[in-house]
Design a protein that fits this description.
- It is a single chain.
- Helices cover about 35% and strands about 15% of the residues.
- Helix 5 (about 110-120) links the parallel strand 2 and strand 3.
- By secondary structure, it is α/β, with parallel strands linked by helices.
- It has two domains: about 5-255, Aspartate Aminotransferase, domain 2 (3-Layer(aba) Sandwich), CATH 3.40.640.10; about 260-390, Aspartate Aminotransferase, domain 1 (Alpha-Beta Complex), CATH 3.90.1150.10.
- Strands 1-7-6-5-4-2-3 form a seven-stranded mixed beta sheet, with helices on both faces.
- The protein starts with 6 loop residues before the first helix and ends with a helix.
- The protein has helices at about 5-15, 40-45, 60-75, 85-95, 110-120, 135-145, 165-175, 225-240, 245-255, 260-275, 295-300, 315-325, 355-360, 380-390; strands at about 80-85, 105, 130, 150-155, 180-185, 200-205, 220-225, 280-285, 310-315, 330-335, 345, 370-375.
- The protein contains 14 helices and twelve strands.
- The chain binds ligand LCS.
- Ligand LCS binds near residues 154 and 185.
- Ligand LCS binds next to helix 4 and helix 5.
Length: about 400
């Protein structure tokens, strides 16, 4: 598929070709752990990477490969690597750059388990992280040390929807010759293509918008061809975080409608955020599509739309927030995000449970914050549900 095609065409076609053996139009699920060679010499050549070919699914698989090719095209990167989950993508990418004695700079505002990986898992390998306020490029610059090997961030961030200027941070990383890794889960490539803005590597929880239907876990890393090959060889194969062919197929199928779901979800989220921002019981709404959001202008510059994640604080803090969660009827009280169904969570007790309270508060995740993942239902029904849930 020609990369010059527009995003919707790439979402449907990139990385996939009809099965040469049968003509099957849809990519088959190669539900096989192992692949046969025609001779001992060929087998040795494939294992030795002197000859292309499949040998063992932990090393590569045609269904997984189709997902990787599609994601490389959608993120405008050279190559991609699929993993068992978003956390496998994050840990693989970071371990590919950071070794014992090294240092990373990361935004403080991150998904809870990613924060935990940097703050508590990396030190087990003898590497340290400095966390910085998520939005000011100068703070990243000040935190760089002689042994810094990586800068890492999310935009929009989970769950406070901080927005970072990708181009400016990429310029800083370039000037210090540091790789820059971004988690693009909240935006998806339908809204934001960070590699085009100068980022080195993009990671995803494919469990979310890419899959879109809440039925498969997966992760993706997109970046320079050499680095992706090294991450495959040095980390995924030996640490073992490989995605299953069936999950790769579900995510591949989900991506066909990514742009359509995203458009519907972003439009719904805009309406809901506007509704919440004028509601007398709501203290504060975090949504980059609101003019009052501090990152609104940057989001407008670097995103095609403002996403479909919202977080808000109900007047009355934790108890009031819990009441809203207990009263909703269409929103599901469920972790994860990016599904066709609308979901509601309390980050402090779920996605950010692993983050100590003081560190969580410093990242803006207050005790009472409620997060919405807006789905594709009718916007009127979703605002109606929140209206009745807030009537207490
Ligand atoms: N990156 C972001 C931004 C996430 O929100 C998550 C999961 C991950 C990476 C990890 O992906 P996974 O390994 O789960 O595929 N976020 C979750 C959340 O907010 N609630 O439940 C999971």
């Amino acid at each position: 598929m020609n990369r010059s095609h527009l995003f919707p065409t790439l979402a449907v076609h990139a990385g996939e070709t009809p099965c040469p053996a049968t003509g099957a139009l849809d990519t088959p699920i190669y539900q096989s752990t192992t692949f046969v060679s025609s001779s001992a010499d060929e087998m040795a050549a494939v294992f030795g990477e002197q000859q292309p070919g499949y040998m063992y699914t932990r090393y590569g698989n045609p269904t997984i490969h189709a997902l990787e090719s599609k994601m490389a095209a959608l993120e405008a990167g050279e190559a991609a690597l699929a993993t068992a989950s978003g956390m496998a993508a994050i840990s693989t990418a970071v371990l590919g750059y950071v070794k014992t004695g090294d240092h990373a700079v990361a935004a403080r505002s991150l998904y809870g388990a990613a924060y935990d990986f940097f703050s508590r898992k990396l030190p087990r390998f003898g590497a340290q992280t400095s966390f910085v306020g998520a939005t000011r490029i100068e703070d990243f610059e000040r935190a760089v040390l002689p042994n810094t090997k990586l800068i890492y961030f999310e935009t929009p961030s989970n769950p406070v929807l901080d927005i970072i200027d990708i181009e400016r941070l990429a310029a800083l990383a370039r000037s210090r010759q540091l790789p820059l890794v971004v988690d693009n889960t909240f935006a998806s490539p339908a809204l934001q293509q960070p590699i085009s803005l100068g980022v080195t590597v993009v990671v995803h929880s494919a469990t979310k918008y890419l899959c879109g239907h809440g039925d498969a876990m997966g992760g993706i890393i997109v970046g320079p061809r050499d680095k992706i090959a090294e991450l495959n060889r040095e980390v995924v194969r030996d640490f073992g975080g490989v995605i299953s062919p069936f999950n790769a197929w579900l995510i591949l199928r989900g991506i066909h409608t990514l742009h359509l779901r995203m458009a519907a979800q972003c439009a719904n989220a805009q309406q809901i955020a506007e509704f919440l921002s004028t509601h007398p019981k709501v203290e504060r709404v975090n949504f980059p599509g609101l003019g009052s959001h501090p990152g609104h202008a940057i989001a407008r510059k670097q995103m095609k739309a403002f996403g479909a994640m919202i977080s808000f604080e109900v007047k009355g803090g934790l108890e009031a927030g819990k009441k809203v969660m207990d009263r909703v009827k269409i929103f599901s009280r469920a972790a994860s995000l990016g599904d066709t169904r609308s979901l509601i969570v309390h980050p402090a007790s779920t996605s950010h449970r692993a983050v100590p309270r003081q560190e969580r508060l410093a990242a803006g995740v207050s005790d009472g914050l409620v997060r919405l993942s807006v789905g594709v239902e009718a916007a009127e029904d979703l605002t109606g549900d929140l209206e009745q849930a807030l009537s207490f």
